[in-house]
């Protein structure tokens, strides 16, 4: 059975629940706004102005936006942590960490096929992740850690200007690093690390969308991804019934497939 | 030379003996209460305490330092400050200012340490070098480490004057050839009040020490053991150029139009937003001015490691590890650009490597497109 003759059929699977999607876009927006306002704070344009200082407040406004967005960013983060315990399996905290043998194998697969661009000779159904793949999951852990650093250093710098208890929770940060200098430097440098993350993340999303054609990009709007029908248990086994033991059959392409010839 | 008296005189007695009037003394008490941030109603209490408390002996040590702390202290607003805190005549120990010198001076110090064991105030000016067994700083033939440990043992309170004793200052800056450390790295079993600054403001120094002699307790300290009354706020929070900052009006160089108008010095490297000190309120030279008022940004002299967080005229520290002096932004931009190139290359390579897969799926899609029913 040559793959060229076999039509692939897909089913829609609801992968990203609404809270996950809202979080994703809130997070993306916050990071964009925080990085943009942050760079303005770091290096404001010098404006020649005939207006007296009493007549304008633009730099204060930029900082205000940065701090207000920071609170939203923190709030979204807390809600997402909550959802990592109550959401579906693709939102669960376990899906981010390579805890199982399967996840470790998946990391190898992703590195070979997607990063080093090897050609997959044996199409195991399980190789293609339905949620995020194991490498992507790990990269979100990294992003989460970067976000934690930004929240800690950001609120640490903000704490002396605020009497609100949330900010006061971070009064330990500056003493920990010894001075505002270091904290500010870390805050600034980690902004760049986040930008690097965004570049890689956005590229890989397009990469998967283009090569797999399963609606990777639109899934973060609609929540659905397309999954091979073979991977979905038949309708009648859905509700609480034990499905017939079904080994995942490796789907080996014909020796004559063009993919094999490529080698 | 008088040796240490048996009956200790009170602060008031000491002041009167030095030729000040009671009126001077009352003024002094008022000044002090104000520096400490106390209410006017407490002035009486301060005066009464100074009237009745016997003078507390002070041992003032000098290690790796430039004496700017001492200079600042003896020039604090009110002359009584240094006159009554440091008994320069019978003196306990202040190498730079005391009448005695050499063996006499060391003998006076030891006498004080024995007689007032557990009572004296130990003030330390300067950092302590640990390198080469501490030999980079020796006084009377013994290392600073030795002196410090000995003097700290019987001290009631230890005050670290200035950035040297608090943070290490310039001696501890990279590459720190003498392995200079601030004193809290050596004395761990006693509270140390840190009064950073290069130098600290004289009135701040006086405020700290007078707080202890009047109330017998240390002033309230923050998490870095700095007195809150003087180090709770950043220069930026009390800077008179702050409205320009909020309005986004900045000088870009020291001689531009904006600098002449007195705009905020943030873009020429002002450390005010990162520096905790009282320069904006107490100011310097008896309240005449402070760096920002004189047209120069704050260099953050009271902050940990401020020498290595340069250059002073750039907002963000440079990264020395990158051979040439590079700022985080240059490194970030270069990395982002490299990554952009890498990602583009990967995209092209992916299309080449996966061309057969792509051909198949495009063929399949096209076949399906032909089959689309239009009814
Ligand atoms: C995605 C997260 C964030 C990014 C990318 C970001 C970025 C930046 C950047 C680039 C700066 C300029 C640093 C400099 O002075 O050189 C900055 C400043 C600052 N950020 Fe953030 N930030 C983030 C989150 C936060 C959070 C959560 C807070 C918490 C309140 C915060 C508070 C601050 C403060 C207080 C400053 C210093 C502003 C000032 O001194 O006027 N940031 N941020
Ligand atoms: S001159 Fe310095 S301390 Fe003053 S407002 Fe500007 S940045 Fe802040």
TrEMBL record, chain A:
Organism phylogeny: Bacteria, Pseudomonadati, Bacteroidota, Saprospiria, Saprospirales
A Gene Ontology biological process term: respiratory electron transport chain
InterPro entries reported in the protein's UniProt record: Cyt_b561_bac/Ni-Hgenase, Di-haem_cyt_TM, Hydrogenase_cytochrome, Ni-dep_Hydgase_cyt-B
Locations listed in the record: Cell membrane
Annotated region described as Disordered, given as residue ranges: 235-263
PANTHER family linked: NI/FE-HYDROGENASE 1 B-TYPE CYTOCHROME SUBUNIT, NI_FE-HYDROGENASE 1 B-TYPE CYTOCHROME SUBUNIT-RELATED
GO molecular function annotation: electron transfer activity; heme binding; iron ion binding
Biased composition (Basic and acidic residues): 253-263
Predominant location: membrane
Membrane protein topology class: Multi-pass membrane protein
Gene Ontology, cellular component aspect: plasma membrane
Protein name in UniProt: Hydrogenase
Residues spanning the membrane: 22-43, 64-85, 128-149, 185-206
SUPFAM superfamilies attached to this UniProt entry: Transmembrane di-heme cytochromes
UniProt KW keywords: Cell membrane, Electron transport, Heme, Iron, Membrane, Metal-binding, Transmembrane, Transmembrane helix, Transport
Cytochrome b561 bacterial/Ni-hydrogenase domain ranges (all copies): 15-223
Family note: Belongs to the HupC/HyaC/HydC family.
Pfam families reported in the protein's UniProt record: Ni_hydr_CYTB
Automatic annotation (TrEMBL), chain B:
Segments forming domain Cytochrome-c3 hydrogenase C-terminal: 231-312
Domain NADH:ubiquinone oxidoreductase-like 20kDa subunit intervals: 66-211
Residues reported in the UniProt entry to bind [3Fe-4S] cluster: 279, 298, 301
GO cellular component, one term: ferredoxin hydrogenase complex
Protein keywords: 3Fe-4S, 4Fe-4S, Cell membrane, Iron, Iron-sulfur, Membrane, Metal-binding, Oxidoreductase, Signal
Residues that hold [4Fe-4S] cluster 2 according to the record: 236, 239, 264, 270
Residues annotated for [4Fe-4S] cluster 1 binding in this entry: 66, 69, 164, 198
Molecular-function GO term, any one: electron transfer activity
UniProt-listed InterPro entries: Cytochrome-c3_hydrogenase_C, NADH_UbQ_OxRdtase-like_20kDa, NiFe-Hase_small_C_sf, NiFe_Hase_small_N_sf, NiFe_hydrogenase_ssu
UniProt xrefs under Pfam families: NiFe_hyd_SSU_C, Oxidored_q6
Cofactor(s) in the UniProt record: [4Fe-4S] cluster
Compartment(s) of residence: Cell membrane
GO biological process: anaerobic respiration
Subunit structure: Heterodimer of a large and a small subunit.
Family: Belongs to the [NiFe]/[NiFeSe] hydrogenase small subunit family.
Protein name, entry field: Hydrogenase
Species the sequence originates in: Phaeodactylibacter xiamenensis
């Amino acid at each position: 059975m040559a793959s060229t003759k076999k039509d692939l059929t897909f089913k829609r699977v609801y992968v990203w629940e609404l809270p996950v999607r809202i979080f994703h876009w809130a997070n993306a927006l916050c990071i964009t706004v925080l990085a943009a306002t942050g760079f303005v704070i770091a290096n404001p344009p010098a404006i020649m102005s005939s207006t007296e200082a009493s007549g304008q407040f633009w730099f204060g406004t930029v900082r205000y936006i940065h701090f207000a967005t920071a609170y939203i960013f923190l709030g979204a983060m807390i809600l997402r942590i909550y959802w990592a315990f109550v959401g579906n399996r693709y939102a669960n905290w376990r899906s981010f960490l390579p805890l199982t043998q399967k996840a470790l194998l998946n990391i190898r697969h992703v590195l070979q096929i997607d990063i080093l661009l090897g050609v997959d000779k044996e199409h195991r159904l399980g190789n293609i992740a339905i949620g995020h793949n194991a490498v992507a999951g790990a990269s979100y852990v990294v992003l989460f850690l970067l976000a934690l650093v930004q929240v800690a250093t950001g609120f640490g710098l903000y704490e002396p200007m605020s009497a609100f208890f949330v900010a006061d929770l971070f009064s330990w940060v500056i003493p920990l690093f010894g001075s505002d200098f270091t904290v500010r430097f870390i805050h600034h440098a980690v902004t760049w690390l986040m930008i690097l993350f965004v570049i890689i993340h956005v590229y890989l999303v397009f990469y998967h969308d283009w090569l797999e054609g399963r609606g990777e990009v639109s899934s973060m709007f609609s929540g659905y991804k397309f999954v091979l029908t073979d991977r979905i248990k038949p309708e009648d086994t859905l509700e609480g019934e034990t499905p017939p033991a079904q080994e995942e059959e490796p789907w080996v392409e014909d020796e004559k497939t063009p993919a094999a010839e490529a080698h | 030379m008088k040796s240490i008296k048996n009956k200790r005189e009170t602060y008031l007695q000491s002041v009167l003996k030095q030729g000040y009037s009671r009126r001077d003394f009352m003024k002094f008490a008022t000044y002090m209460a104000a520096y400490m941030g106390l209410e006017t109603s407490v002035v009486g209490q301060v005066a009464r305490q100074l009237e009745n408390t016997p003078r507390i002996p002070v041992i003032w040590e000098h290690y790796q330092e430039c004496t700017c702390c001492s200079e600042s202290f003896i020039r604090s607003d009110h002359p009584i400050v240094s006159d009554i805190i440091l008994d320069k005549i019978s003196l306990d120990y202040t190498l730079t200012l005391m009448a005695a010198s050499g063996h006499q001076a060391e003998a006076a110090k030891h006498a004080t340490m024995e007689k007032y064991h557990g009572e004296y105030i130990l003030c330390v000016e300067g950092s302590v070098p640990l390198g080469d067994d501490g030999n980079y700083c020796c006084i009377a033939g013994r290392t600073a480490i030795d002196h410090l440990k000995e003097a700290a043992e019987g001290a009631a309170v230890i005050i670290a004057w200035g950035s040297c004793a608090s943070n290490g200052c310039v001696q501890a800056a990279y590459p720190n050839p003498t392995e200079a450390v601030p004193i809290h790295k050596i004395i761990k079993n006693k509270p140390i009040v840190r009064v950073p600054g290069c130098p600290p403001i004289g009135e701040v120094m006086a405020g700290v020490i007078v707080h202890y002699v009047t109330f017998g307790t240390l002033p309230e300290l923050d998490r870095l053991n700095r007195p809150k009354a003087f180090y709770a706020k950043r220069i930026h929070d009390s800077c008179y150029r702050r409205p320009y900052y909020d309005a986004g009006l900045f000088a870009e160089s020291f001689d531009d139009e904006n600098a002449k108008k007195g705009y905020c010095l943030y873009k020429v490297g002002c450390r005010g937003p990162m520096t905790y000190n009282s320069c904006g309120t107490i100011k310097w030279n008896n309240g005449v001015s402070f760096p920002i008022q004189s047209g120069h940004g704050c260099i953050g002299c009271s902050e940990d490691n401020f020498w290595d967080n340069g250059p002073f005229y750039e907002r963000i520290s440079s990264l020395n590890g990158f051979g040439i002096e590079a700022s985080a932004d240059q490194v970030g931009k270069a990395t982002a650009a490299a990554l952009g190139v890498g990602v583009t290359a990967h995209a092209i390579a992916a299309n080449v490597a996966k061309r057969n897969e792509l051909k198949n799926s495009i063929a399949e899609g096209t076949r399906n497109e032909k089959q689309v029913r239009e009814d």
